Amino acid sequence: FAEDGYRMWLRYEPVADQSLQQQYRKSLQQLVINTDDATLAIAKQELQAGISGLTGQAIPHSRQVSEHGALLVGTPQSSQDIANLKLDLSALGPEGFRIVSADIAGKRATIVAANSNKGALYGSFHFLRLLQTEQSINSLEISSAPSVQHRVVNHWDNLNRLVERGYAGLSLWDWGTLPAYKDNPRYRDYARINASLGINGTVINNVNADARILTDQFLEKAAALADVFRPYGIKLYLSVKFNSPMLLDGFETADPLDADVQKWWQARVKKVYEYIPDFGGFLVKANSEGQPGPQDFNRNHADGANMLAEALEPFGGIVFWRAFVYAPEQGDRFREAYDEFMPLDGTFKDNVIVQIKNGPIDFQPREPFSPLFGSLEKTNIALELQVTQEYFGFSYHLAYQGPLFTEALNADTYAKGEGSTVGKILAGEVFDYKQTGMAAVINPGNSRNWTSHPFVQSSWYAFGRLAWDVNLTSAAIGEEWLRQTFNNDTGFIESMQEIMAISREAGVNYRMPLGLTHLYAQGHHYGPAPWHDKSGRADWTAYYYHQATKDGVGFDRTASGSNAIEQYHSPLDQMYAKPESTPEDILLWFHHLGWDYKMGSGRTLWHELVYKYDTGVAQVEKMQATWESVKDFVDTERYQRVKALLKVQLRDAKHWRDACISYFQSVNGLPLPKGSPKPA
Ligand code: GCU
Description:
This protein has 20 helices and 16 strands. It is an alpha/beta fold. α8 crosses α9. The structure holds alpha-D-glucopyranuronic acid. Alpha-D-glucopyranuronic acid binds at residues 164-165, 207-208, 285, 289, 324, 362, 390.
């Protein structure tokens, strides 16, 4: 059949390098797994399918090492051979793994060892990754453990199967056929895809939650999905609506300090665990964008989160409580999460994790990091990213978000001096958190290739890899993904690395360079609408963000404006206080500057802006040319699809540029710099 992207990065096509092919065949004669555990049965299936696909040679299963070229997978508990090796597994924790080459009873072997079967499954996927990316497996000595405990994907799927900001078809969860048809192969493949990255949790429904998710009718269906995901090490979580007792059971209040409300939640949670014994917990969007929350009853976020946490605690469940809060009354949306959450630091229970969106306003193409990172010292935290390209051209634009994710993780908060990066904070190296997490809103739907644009897969991949290891680089991850998803040809990889590297910056340049933000048309978040629309909610219009007048442009967040910069640690607050010391790519985020402000390049701000918009368009043209140059290395279906989508992207990039420049020009009345293309 035509390659259509369904297999994502788990394609297991024959290894092209002949000498490696030989090496793999020799080293992989026998697969030894000595237990019938369901998780290791999955490892066995994956390794057998993967290795026979990659090497063209089947690998028979055995319970004992009896030949050279054994691949032994398990834990010291399940395998005497692994126990005898006395490998030090102490640094791996419950989910890490080691992959080593060693002799077992005189036979050459490769060992994938872990403290748990789940760790062994992750190690098996990693081993397959080595083969898929054509690495030698002769003298392996790999040790790996995840940076954060909770590595969770978030679905914004509604119960009617429409996906908020989904763009890849209807929801994967076919509620009508659940729980009867839980053997739907897509559920298993979905679990494989996630497990291959070490993702260990999934929130299956929209944060703008439907209270009915907690009814028996839906719990029974969710339980069927949880059954499928369990052996893959994936826990199921639900988004819940804070006023569920009112909506489902006619309560007059959902006050978290009301004893009857508390009892209602305790009873419901008990019910959830009857259906799903290893249920992960709740994700909650409260008092944000019209969602109900504790503030409706004059209580705060901690009151609300702790009430749910208490109900979940006896069963080991957790609450992800989102910090994405803002209301139209506030002068600066940027400030709000920090202003609401900082006074509550230290008052949340241990099984609450405050989930902080990147960035502080929304999933914009570029934002400075949320100052809650580095400031919430006594509250467990999670970083929330978005794979779904809500603000990045939906499923029509090519935008590898590895650079965006690593920019967020590598941002230095200076919380405890230089080097206190967001990544280190999440990894628990700066503050003493009980638990931390990383979450990503992903977009898969019933599109045959899951994500619609084939390259959205790369951002899902990048999220998973970074949640496992916050120190990986965007380029290394991009390369891994390309090798597995397309092929290992060096020329192809080099050309494609360029596309991967520039695609995010291109998207910033043609939409909102130099720290401009949120210039989208209201509602759909796809095309530009920078003009001053006075009809709607102010903080949902572009003018609120760019503040462009005849005199200048940008949002003043210094002391003369909203003073949001005070939320950052020193020296960032001083750095952002002056335009000269603010990085130019976030300049207009913090400053309102005259159109003739001199930029580092020597150009005026106005000319620089035009230059950036033009650069964005030129970068898409470059991406197009590069893609066309790799035609012979890509299967026809994916080649044609991406080629067609790049055309759409170029059209849109020009539209963005022309709309924004024309609008700003109508405000400032300045001529275009010499040599710039005339808006079409
Ligand atoms: C954005 C997005 C909404 C979403 C919200 C959230 O505002 O446009 O669709 O519900 O983020 O993260 O809660």
